[in-house]
Each structure stands twice: as C-alpha cells, then as structure tokens.
Amino acid sequence: MPKDFLKLTDFSRDELDAMFRLAADLKAKQKRGEAHRLLEGKSLAMIFEKSSTRTRVSFEVGMTQLGGHALFLHSGTTQMGRGEPIRDTGRVMARYCDGIMIRTFSQEAVEELARWSDVPVINGLTDMYHPCQLMADLLTVIEHKGGYEGLTFAWIGDGNNMANSWINAAAVFGFRLQVATPEGYRPDAAVMKTAAEKGADIVYTSDPAEAVAGADVLSTDVWASMGKEEEAEQRRQAFAGYCIDSALLQRANRDAIVLHCLPAHRGEEITEEVIESPQSVIFDQAENRLHAQKAIMATLMG
Ligand code: CP
Ligand code: NVA
Q: Are 187 and 118 found together in one domain?
C-alpha cells in the first residue's frame, strides 16, 4: 500500500475496494452512534491554497469522529505564503502531525510534499486530480446501484481535475466511461494515454448525447474551476450545450443517477430541476466525502 493518497492509479482495485468497505462500516457505526476512534490522539494538518467548504469540513469533522484532531492552515497565513519551501514545510509538519491533507494548484507540489514528509499526504484537490472526491462518488454509486461493476458512467463538461480522476477510476475499476467535452477542453493527454495503455474502456466525444446514451451514472462539474475564473465568460460560450438538463437526462438509462461534486452553477453545467430531481444523489455524494475520507485516513494513518 502506498504511504500517500495522491491519485487513484497509485492503488490497486483491491486496496480501494477495502477502503469502500471500511467507509460503509464507519458510516454505519457513526449512524448508530457507536464509537470508532481509530485515530485516537492523532493530528491531521490541512493545508489549503484554494477555497473549500466540503473538503475542509469533512476532513475536520472526520478526524474528530475518529478521536483525533485537524488543524486548518491557509497558505496566506502561514510561512508557505511567504515562500518557505514545501520540502521544509513537509519535514516540519511530519514532526508534529500524523498526516497532511493538502489542496493546492500543482500535482507536482503535492508529490514533493509527500517525498519530504514521513507521514501520509492526502491530495485534497489539485489542478490535475481530486481523488478523495472520486472515493465519495463511487461510495455513493455502490450505495445506490449495489456496486460499480457493469455500469456505464458518463462525464459531461470540462476535461478538468474531476474528469482526469474519473479516467483514472475507469482504469483502476474497469467500468465503462463515456466522456463528452468540447474540443479544446479535453482531459489531460497523459492521463488519457496512461488509461488507454491500461486497457481502460473509455470513449471520448464532443457530443453530450452520445456520452449519456446507455449511461447509468451521469456526472459533471463547473465549467471554470478554481484558478480559471478569468476564463468564465469564454468558457460559458464554449460549453453551450453541455448542460445536464432534463432533456439530456432522459437520453440516459431510465434509472440513471446524477452526481455533481459541488459547488454547482445552476443553469450552466446542470439545471436546478436536475439537481432537485429524484435521480439526483448529489447530497448523499457530498455526505459521503466524510465517510470515504475517514476510511482513507484510518487506512493510511491508523
Ligand atoms: N467538492 C469539493 O471538493 O468541495 P469543496 O471545494 O467545497 O471542498
Ligand atoms: N473542478 C473544480 C472542483 C471543485 C471541487 C475545481 O477545481 O474548482
């Protein structure tokens, strides 16, 4: 098992399946009010260089429920924001804490932090990947569909960190993925190439209708991710027709479910009607950030 949780393809399917089982077990215990203090007395440093609601709260509450403690560190109020190198921050944090969660821009920075830290480093989102989100997403699919095997997944929208993570997931878990992005907004070329080399069952198209045909799970995300705010208007034009609305949803399998990692921009990548429809499992998905991450932390830091 790798020391760190940096991207899904670092793990085997068996290792990640074990985390889903642990997540379900911890979720059941929490619902029953049963103690599950697997990280008693342990501390998690949470480094944020970008905004967050779900990631921050779910990691912090998750550590509390596991009997530990989490520290919120924003780069702007630490020495990192004043240029202290990540290799020094990593070495020092590892002397105090039992794990580090980081949300930042470059995947390379997270990898460097992991190299210089003796404790597990968890990727809380980079421009390249959002692996904790995928664990929550698949836990939600397992709950609603009884598993992920044999299902067809559709990604509609930007070829961003979430799209790259779905491609990694398809490569690890072996399910079919149908990706629709506008030309010029395709997922990362190296990520697509690696998945293809692993024999992943993925099709890429620029037609959302083609991507949702036969799909059991539809997923999307904002058109302008954190750091791309200045491109928002240009992207609104490029992504016209990539909205998951009721008409597009009707083209998927009848009992398809809809995921969105949130925050959502209603009327852009998804409509209010779809978010509030019975096919939406978006708020179960948001809740599952907590349970999935508790399993990741208990596995790596326990
Ligand atoms: N989905 C997600 O990561 O949400 P936050 O940006 O609120 O953490
Ligand atoms: N792709 C989005 C995900 C937010 C959780 C972003 O990076 O801003």
A: no
Which residue range forms the structural domain that includes residue 70? 8-130+289-301
- Kindly state whether residues 159 and 271 are assigned to the same domain: yes
In 70-118, which ranges are continuous DSSP H helix?
Answer: 86-96, 107-116
Which protein residues touch ligand 2 with a CB less than 6 Å away?
A: 125, 160-162, 221-222, 225-226, 261
Same domain, residue pair 209 and 219:
yes
Q: Whose CA is nearest to atom 4 of ligand 1?
A: 54
The structure's pTM equals 0.98
| 94-131 residues labelled b (16+ CB within 10 A) or e (exposed) | beebbbbbbbbeebeebbbbbebbebbbbbbbbbbbbb
- The answer on 152 and 108 residing in a single domain is no
- Rounded Cα distance, 116 and 37, in Å: 28
In this structure, the residues whose C-beta lies within 6 A of any atom of ligand 1 are 52-55, 125, 133, 261-262
Q: pLDDT tens, 71-94?
A: 999 988 999 999 999 999 999 999
pLDDT per position as a tens digit, 202-253:
999 999 999 999 999 999 999 999 999 999 999 999 999 999 999 999 999 9
CATH number, residue 69: 3.40.50.1370
Q: Is-contact 208 249, C-beta < 8 A?
A: no
Measure the CA–CA gap between 120 and 166, rounded to whole angstroms: 23
Q: Do 194 and 211 share a domain, yes or no?
A: yes
Same domain, 141 and 228: yes
Are 212 and 275 part of one and the same domain? yes
